[in-house]
Amino acid sequence: MGKINQSAELVSSFAEIAREKGIDRDTLQSIMEDVFKAMIRKRYGADDSFEIIFNPDNGDIQIIHIRQVIPNQDLEDPVTQIEFRDALSIDEDIEVGDEVATEVNIRDFGRRVIATARQTFNQRIRDIEKENIVDQYSELIGEIVVGEIYQIRRREVLVMHDKVELILPKHEQIPKDRYRKGDMLRAVVKDINRETGGFPQVIISRADPAFMERLFELEVPEIYEGVVEIKKIVREPGERAKVAVTSHDERVDPVGACVGMKGVRIHAVVRELNNENIDVVPWTDDIYENIKRSLAPAKPIDVSLNETVTPPRAKVTVRADEVSLAIGRGGLNIRLGSALTGYEIDVYRDISQDEEDVDVMEFADEIDPETLTALQRIGCDTAKAVLELSVEELVRRSGLEKEVAENVINIMRAEFEEE
After folding, report:
1. Could you tell me the residue range of the domain that residue 278 belongs to?
2. Does residue 299 fall inside a structural domain?
3. CB 318 within 8 A of CB 301
4. Together in a domain, 112 and 157
5. Are strands 60-70 and 81-83 parallel, antiparallel or unpaired?
6. Same domain for 14 and 115?
7. What's the pLDDT tens digit per position in 152-211?
8. pTM summary value
């Protein structure tokens, strides 16, 4: 194989890889020049006396070796100098002090150096791909992307988007979601993990509040235009969410705008989130009113605050028939209300004078004082208030051991069964 054909073949293989990876011609030329300079340095120790000429029309590349002509017997550096008698065989009109240029045959570098050049080129392409992924998806963090599911693993789902692999980890999935290979999936870009050793991992999420926020922007023009603002979103993905909204135009009802005529707007969001229940509540700077609204659909009667503790606590009084509604199944409603407002909310029953109930302190002969104090601290100052909670929620809110919580509920339930 001739020298031109071999160099053209090498350049052609480089160009083909670059085309597959979407690398533009200027970048390709810059990479090839760097790669060939590295080849030159590996063989000659330096590249100062060489010129690389790239011909994009025929895909050829030439390496020109430029040396200064010196008198015979005075050769000190064969890389930068050439004796007069040797220069005459190249150019019979040459004189001492002139420069002479010769083309280097790529075959002269040897197979090992050429193989190293290929490896260097491939590494440079991979580095550019990594940089492109980081640049592209850094701008998309917090935005929705749509990709095709191509692999489902136990701990993650892999999604292809613009020929880039996106990762949907288990903890970023909606628990009720079911994934099938080939299905299209919407998610929000959450993060880019650069510490993987290989390509950067683009992490996407369907559980993040930002995903719900982007969905509302798509369905509610007033949010997209900035007339209605989402102040905060809290969710337990696939179960329930609370969205606090406010309007910058007094003529626009923020809740109505989000719900839409006959609920059409919010239903579109709910469908995408696999029927996650969404409470849209109007935001206010009045913390007392905000806490009341955060427990919707319950309608609290009174709120008192204790801001001397961390996190601050709110004592919320609701009608007896709304205690379960305020707390929610498994304590979900009260957890989301606490997350939305930043206050640990304790729900108290409003006890009418003619209602039969028992103060928890009256169980002092059966329940130890520390347990009773723990119950009072979370707003369970009567037996019926305790019985509104499940064992799991009582454990979570009070910090009691499960066996203790079960015993407390059994004792108080027996009090009313005996009557």
Report:
1. 225-283
2. no
3. yes
4. no
5. parallel
6. yes
7. 999 999 999 988 999 999 999 999 899 999 999 999 999 998 876 678 899 999 999 999
8. 0.72
